[in-house]
């Protein structure tokens, strides 16, 4: 009796095992980012092609090894035989005999790596040298100008300082002169309307009669007063009749209102010559006058009692430190 064949049964995995495998596959999966394509613009493409063309046209660099010396012609060569037939001997130079410039070796080959023509390199060096000499000359000129500028500025500063001290010395000399005039007028009797202070006499007297050493101070004061009167006359002429004559007006008022013409002063050649001197020289003259006539030291700012001026270090500024 036939018997039933035994068929093996397949064992099924539990459902939990399949879930764990799927979870492992998910965790081990690598996510690759999409590759972004770069687009080239027309300007970038033109620039790239230009660079490639320049790279292709550039000659290759010469080898760093020095060029080998040319080998002499072997006696078996056809060229050596032709030269020997013309009288050439090995080791001698070509050309006429006794020529000191004859070459024993052939001219070597030099690889030219740039695109410049023959003689361009020497021309370029000449231009660079000229530009460098020009720049060097400009730098030297600038240094000289800077030195001259410093000297000029220092000189102008010293002249301005001497000019200011000169005006101060003139004021001191004027004060001493006017003080002596007041003292003399104070001792006089009041005759013919003489002002004891001598102020009116000083204003009325011509500028040429003033001592030359401080005459520029008086002239400057008179010019400022004249300018002030002209401005006052300009304002008053808008509201005042120029033909009106007031008997109570003095000479200065009539001059201000334009009723009387001002007398023009003649050119003072002596004063103009005095003003052409350097400020330091003008100051020195006034300082000497103060010391000789008034025993006054401009640098000490003190009037001494004796003529020897005992206690004064000296006549110049350097002596006073």
Describe the structure.
- The protein has about 325 residues and is mainly alpha-helical.
- The chain has 9 helices and 2 strands.
- α4 packs parallel to α9.
- The longest helix is centred in the middle third of the chain and has 68 residues.
Proportion of helical residues: 40-55%
Residues in β-strands, percent: under 5%
Q: How many strand segments?
A: 2
Q: Please give the radius of gyration in angstroms.
A: 55 Å
Major sheet strand order: 1-2
Report the average pLDDT across residues.
76
Class inferred from helices and paired strands: mainly alpha
Shape: elongated
Provide a quick synopsis of the model.
By secondary structure, the chain is mostly helical. Helices cover 51% and strands 1% of the residues.
Supply the key terms.
single chain; 321 residues; mainly alpha; two-stranded antiparallel sheet; 51% helix
Question: Layout of helices and strands, plus pairs?
Answer:
Elements: H1 15-27, H2 42-57, H3 78-85, H4 120-187, H5 199-204, H6 215-236, H7 251-257, H8 269-275, H9 279-294, E1 296-297, E2 302-303
Antiparallel strand pairs: 1-2
């Amino acid at each position: 009796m036939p018997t039933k064949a035994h068929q093996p049964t397949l064992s099924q995995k539990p459902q939990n095992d399949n879930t764990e495998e799927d979870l492992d596959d998910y965790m081990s999966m690598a996510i690759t980012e999409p590759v972004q394509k770069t687009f080239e613009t027309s300007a970038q493409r033109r620039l790239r092609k230009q660079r490639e063309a320049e790279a292709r046209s550039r000659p290759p660099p010469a080898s760093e090894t020095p060029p080998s010396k040319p080998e002499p012609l072997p006696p078996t060569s056809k060229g050596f035989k032709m030269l020997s037939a013309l009288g050439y001997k090995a080791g001698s130079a070509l050309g006429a005999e006794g020529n000191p410039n004859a070459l024993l070796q052939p001219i070597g080959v030099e690889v030219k790596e740039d695109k410049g023509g023959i003689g361009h390199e020497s021309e370029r060096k000449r231009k660079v040298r000229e530009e460098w000499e020009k720049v060097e000359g400009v730098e030297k000129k600038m240094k000289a100008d800077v030195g001259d500028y410093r000297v000029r500025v220092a000189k102008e500063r010293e002249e301005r300082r001497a000019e200011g001290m000169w005006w101060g010395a003139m004021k001191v000399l004027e004060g001493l002169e006017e003080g002596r005039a007041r003292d003399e007028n104070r001792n006089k009797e009041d005759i013919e309307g003489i002002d004891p202070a001598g102020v009116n006499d000083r204003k009325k007297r011509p500028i040429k009669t003033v001592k030359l050493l401080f005459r520029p101070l008086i002239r400057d004061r008179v010019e400022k007063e004249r300018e002030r009167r002209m401005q006052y006359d300009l304002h008053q002429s808008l509201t005042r009749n120029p033909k009106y004559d007031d008997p109570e007006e003095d000479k200065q008022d009539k001059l201000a209102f334009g009723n009387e013409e001002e007398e023009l002063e003649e050119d003072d050649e002596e004063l103009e010559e005095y003003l052409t001197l350097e400020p330091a020289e003008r100051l020195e003259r006034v300082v000497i006058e103060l010391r000789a006539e008034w025993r006054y030291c401009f640098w000490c700012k003190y009037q001494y009692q004796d003529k020897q001026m005992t206690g004064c270090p000296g006549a110049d500024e350097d002596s006073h430190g």
